[in-house]
Amino acid sequence: MEMDWRKFLAFNALGAALWVGVWGAIGYFAGENWRAIGRWLLRFSWLALALLALAVIAWVIYQRSHATPTSAAAGSDDAADIDRDAANANPDDSGSAPEDAT
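Above: the chain sequence. Below: its structure as tokens.
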């Protein structure tokens, strides 16, 4: 997928202006209370971290419970897979060396 560089530049500039505008407005309206706001937010940062950890754990459990059988066998030994495939290809073959027909 490709985007015209002029369109990218316009949206990038718009995003940067919004980002600076929002954070500038927050700093302006917070004024001298920015330290109190920082202390207040610090209390809830542990809650945010705990929620993030729970979300990651839930995602891992979900991924493991919905794994396909082929993805579970992806780490199996390739040599064992080749031997099993060869045995299934010709069930009459005993696996011994061919006998001389002289």
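The radius of gyration is 31 Å.
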